[in-house]
Each structure stands twice: as structure tokens, then as C-alpha cells.
Design goal:
376 residues; alpha+beta; five-stranded mixed β-sheet; 9 helices; 18 strands
């Protein structure tokens, strides 16, 4: 069995996730495998979420499931260009309506989100989403690949040899990952323009394209000026296969790290996000250039609803309703999808740095406003 590198408290891993992890470490061709602080059981596939592993000659194309190309992007605006606090009563519903027109297929469900967050020096537009229908189509291609390779081998397997992958498939795979990147960029750039139109940012309003919600900003620069507002973009991906000349890195719910690049680790809807970088390249290499993609769930979605209804006191529920009044429906209740993202459903974020010494903190944000696309 390949030795497992634990970038988490191994004793805290739920037994069914640990069983999955140990079984996967025994798979053929797995050379190295790492588990991160947000590891948790995945009923859909044999590998837990929150894991990265490395192979050389063979590829496990099904490990990401159908959410291939999911990631998190942030757009940073210095507060010198911010004019006033975001007014939820005046603009939350308008932002919610606008975000539904920013791409053709929305953010998605689960923990996908579009948020505005801040620290003492900057405002951040953060988008967590993936490739949606294109990811599902790519997964079907991957499934057919394993079937074809199984027939060639004369036995049923869930991997393929790297030489079995045609150049056209690899281009298609990269294009799908690129599509997820473009979708995140459009959410971030269009939210920036929304804020400009709503008079939150120093800008040149005369330059704003009135049809911006239907414009594709996929080629926007990572750093530049848009309608007079300077911004910086950074993107990260946490559900994909990364092909290099010597190996293949498989990430299922583990964020890809690069030297000098800042990535987002969302904590919870009511706690904000961590922005981190690699603290040491050798240490990052040992961790397969990966880290956790979140704080990790303490409660399943079902248990989070149970906790909300039976454990939290009425005054605690009222505090959430006061903090997130804009999210309440006509009955004065939260949609389930929001409740399942509150801080009580997630682990303490102190473990992120305790167990991942290859990371250094850049900043921690506070949530301003959050949009989720679908009801769970």
C-alpha cells in the first residue's frame, strides 16, 4: 500500500472516508497520495473528497465525478476605490437577479457561491463554480474511455494507460477546464460592473457597456483597469487531472498550488475565506502542490438541518436571521441551501495551518453578501 501523507488529523477522519482512502492507496499505479483537512466521505465515488494523488503511466479519469473543472476565483479591488458599504436592502435582490444572467447555466448547487467579501484593505468578489453541463459531458467521455480500455485489457478496470489518451481528448479536457475558468471570470467581472453601476466604486460610468450581462469577458486581463477601476484576478482549481511530462496529478476537492500564486480557501458563508500562498516549494512539492479547498464539513447537509432545527437555540437562529435578513423568504425562513453553509456546519479553520505547514496566510476576509444559485 502506498503511504498516505496526512495533512490533517488522521484520527478525526470519519471511518467510511478513511476506509475509502486506505483502499485507494492500495490501487495499482498510485505512487503518492495526500489527504487534507477537509477530507470527507464521497458516496458517489470510491475516493473521498479532499484528496490528491499522483500516478505516472496510468490515469484514473473518473475520480473527479461530474464536477470536473470546479474552482474558485477572486477579483480584488483596493478600498481606495470603494465608495460606501454594500446596501443589502437596496441591492441584494438586484445582484441576485443580475447573477442569473451572467452565464448560461448558473453557479450550481451545493457549496457553489458568488460573494462579496472584504479585509481591512480590499474588497474581494469571489466565485466558486465549475463547468456544469460541459463537465457532465466530459465525465461521460471519461466513462467511455474506461469501458474501451477495459475491453482492450480483457477485464473491467477504472483506469486507462496514458498512451490510450488521444490528443483530441486531451485538448477537449483542457478546453473544458478553460470553460470553467471563463465562467468564473465572467461572474467576477460582471459583478464588478454591477457594483460600478450601483455607485459603489470609483469608475468612469460612461464607459460601461449597457449590455454587459450578455458580454463575454473571457479574455479580460488578470490585472488591469476596467471602466476606471483597477483590479486583480486570481484563479484556482480543485477538481481535475493535471497532466505533466512526467506524471499525472489527480485532485478531488484539493486546491492546486503554484509558486507565488494566491488561492482562496472558503471557510463558511458566515465566516468568510482564507487567502493563502505556498510557504515553501519543497514542502508544497511533498504535498503534491495541493491543499484543502475548504475548512471541511463538520456536519453533513442533513445533519446541518437537524442541528438548525433541534440544537440551536431560538436566539441563535434569530441572530443568523438578523445577519442575513436579505436571504429570508416570504415566510421568514432561510432556504435550506443557505443554512447548510453557515459556520456551525464547518470545522474550525485553525486546523488549516496547523496541519498544512506548506501554507502561509495572506489575509482572511469577512463576508459582506453571498449569493447561491439553487435550493438544496
Amino acid at each position: 500500500m502506498t503511504s498516505i501523507a496526512f495533512y490533517c488529523d488522521a484520527n478525526s477522519i470519519e471511518q467510511n472516508a478513511m476506509t475509502q482512502l486506505q483502499q485507494y492507496a492500495q490501487r495499482p499505479f498510485v505512487n503518492a497520495i495526500s489527504a487534507f483537512t477537509d477530507i470527507h466521505y464521497c458516496a458517489e465515488k470510491a475516493l473521498p473528497v479532499g484528496v490528491a494523488f499522483q500516478t505516472t503511466g496510468h490515469v484514473y479519469p473518473l475520480i473527479t465525478g461530474k464536477d470536473i473543472g470546479c474552482g474558485v476565483m477572486y477579483l480584488k479591488i483596493n478600498k481606495a476605490h470603494w465608495l460606501k458599504p454594500f446596501d443589502k436592502k437596496a441591492h441584494f435582490q438586484a445582484l441576485y437577479f443580475a447573477h442569473q444572467q451572467m452565464t448560461d447555466d448558473g453557479l450550481g448547487g451545493g457549496n457553489h457561491f458568488l460573494s462579496i467579501e472584504e479585509d481591512s484593505e480590499a474588497v474581494y468578489i469571489i466565485c466558486h463554480t465549475g463547468t456544469r453541463d460541459r463537465g457532465i459531458a466530459l465525465y461521460q467521455e471519461c466513462l467511455q474511455l474506461t469501458r474501451d480500455y477495459s475491453r482492450a485489457c480483457g477485464q473491467e478496470v477504472d483506469y486507462v494507460h496514458r498512451d490510450f489518451l488521444q490528443a483530441g481528448f486531451l485538448r477537449y479536457y483542457d478546453q473544458t477546464l478553460g470553460f470553467g475558468y471563463e465562467r468564473r471570470k465572467n461572474f467576477c467581472i460582471k459583478t464588478l460592473i454591477f457594483l460600478q453601476q450601483a455607485n459603489y466604486l470609483v469608475c468612469e460610468k460612461s464607459g460601461i457597456d449597457k449590455n454587459y450581462l450578455r458580454t463575454n469577458f473571457k479574455d479580460a486581463a488578470h490585472q488591469g483597469m476596467l471602466n476606471g477601476t483597477p483590479y486583480v484576478l486570481e484563479d484556482s482549481i480543485h477538481n481535475h487531472l493535471r497532466f505533466t511530462e512526467k506524471d499525472v496529478l489527480h485532485r478531488k476537492g484539493s486546491t492546486e498550488l503554484e509558486a507565488g500564486k494566491t488561492v482562496v480557501i472558503p471557510l463558511s458563508m458566515s465566516r468568510g475565506s482564507l487567502l493563502v500562498q505556498t510557504a515553501s516549494q519543497p514542502a508544497a512539492e511533498a504535498a503534491l502542490y495541493s491543499c484543502s479547498h475548504g475548512a471541511g464539513r463538520r456536519l453533513s447537509r442533513f445533519d446541518a438541518m437537524k442541528y438548525w432545527k433541534t440544537v440551536l437555540k431560538e436566539k441563535e437562529r434569530k441572530a443568523y436571521k438578523a445577519q442575513f435578513a436579505e436571504l429570508l423568504n416570504r415566510s421568514g425562513d432561510f432556504p435550506h441551501g443557505y443554512i447548510q453553509e453557515f459556520d456551525f456546519a464547518y470545522k474550525d479553520d485553525a486546523d488549516i495551518f496547523k496541519h498544512q505547514p506548506h501554507l502561509k496566510k495572506v489575509t482572511q476576509t469577512k463576508p459582506v453578501v453571498t449569493v447561491k444559485y439553487t435550493e438544496i
